[in-house]
Design goal:
Length: about 325
């Protein structure tokens, strides 16, 4: 803190990591932002404190650390095709009162994007990155019941593009039917059938994509349960019926973080969700058991099934069993 008789201000330094390599000690390009904040008038103090709290929460999720193993030594993979695509969605902050934020969503998505670039070999300009997607954003990206042709459809080169989709955020079931829904950042879980984006529509529209292959990774539970309790108000957990929705992708696979009425847990020591952490560990070579420099969907599923249930029980005392549907022989990455 620098003080004078007439002015008091603080200098806050924030290291912003840029480029495909995350950490400067491993050859990253870095830039330095200097944020100068002066004291606000007393009438604005409460508003500024609230903004500062939000900023600190977001910054804590987006600054990589030397101490988190999956954020360093990201393996290099073979270059993807020029029309291969990725969609990365992180729903971390929710606007409806009472919905808890997803603490590690931004961080999970940030590192997942780096793996898409460096390990999957996808060009940065071929990656759609979205934070706090609203229902309108989901419909823009993936289409609606009436029209399956969303933005993603327009980006796909028919019969050529491989498509990878990653989502970190809340999911919830309809209280009436048990059907699963993505919880957009502006959704009201008590009216999820009206304000959510249905998994059934999501999968139907993906099946209508003319992509060569589609791989979906969902780090979300669709039970309506969170670390802070149910998303719903005045509802007993015993009243909720959760119905798993079959993706039925004709050319692809789906990997989800949990099943049925289970809850997806966090891994605080690693500052990631448990599922995403082990997904990234698998991409670091953990899933390449035969050391052929290839990780398939089946190998990934086996690795996740070995590690996630054990650590969910050990860390949180919860049952969490990842689920795989689709072609187990589909190749996720090929290492150099």
């Amino acid at each position: 803190m620098i003080k004078t008789k007439k002015l008091c201000f603080s200098l806050a330094l924030l290291l912003v990591i840029t480029g495909p390599n995350l950490l400067s000690v491993f050859g990253a390009q870095t830039s330095l932002r200097i944020k100068v904040s002066a004291p606000s008038p007393s009438s604005q103090k409460e508003t500024d404190q609230s903004k500062d709290a939000v900023a600190k929460h977001q910054e804590s999720q987006t600054v990589p650390s030397l101490f988190i193993d999956v954020e360093r030594d990201i393996p290099a993979g073979q270059e993807a095709g020029p029309f291969d695509l990725a969609v990365v969605i992180a729903n971390g902050n929710y606007t409806v009162k009472g919905i808890p934020n997803v603490v590690y969503a931004y961080r999970d998505a940030l590192i997942m994007k780096e793996y898409f670039i460096r390990t999957f070999g996808i060009k940065p300009e071929n990656i759609m990155e979205v934070r706090d997607a609203t229902k309108g954003t989901f419909e823009t990206l993936f289409g609606t019941v009436q029209d399956h042709r969303g933005k993603l459809h327009d980006w796909v080169k028919a019969g050529v593009s491989r498509v990878f989709i990653y989502y970190s955020g809340h999911g919830a079931p309809s209280q009436e039917t048990g059907e699963g829904y993505f919880v957009p950042s502006d959704a009201d879980p008590d009216y999820i059938s009206k304000s959510g984006y249905p998994l059934s529509v999501f999968y139907a529209n993906l099946n209508a994509l003319p992509a060569k292959e589609t791989v979906v990774v969902l780090d979300a539970c669709f039970s309506g349960r969170t670390q802070d309790g149910l998303l719903f108000k005045n509802v007993s957990p015993s009243m909720l019926r959760v119905r798993d929705v079959a993706a039925g992708l004709q050319r692809g696979a789906v990997l989800t973080s949990s099943q049925g009425d289970q809850m997806s847990t966090w891994y605080p020591d690693k500052q990631h969700s448990l599922f995403t952490y082990y997904f990234l560990k698998a991409l670091q070579g953990g899933a390449d058991g035969n050391q052929d420099k290839v990780v398939t969907v089946g190998e990934m599923s086996g690795y996740l099934s070995e590690h996630v249930p054990y650590w969910a029980g050990r860390i949180a005392g919860k049952r969490q069993e990842p689920r795989m549907e689709g072609d187990p022989n589909l190749v996720l990455v090929r290492f150099n």
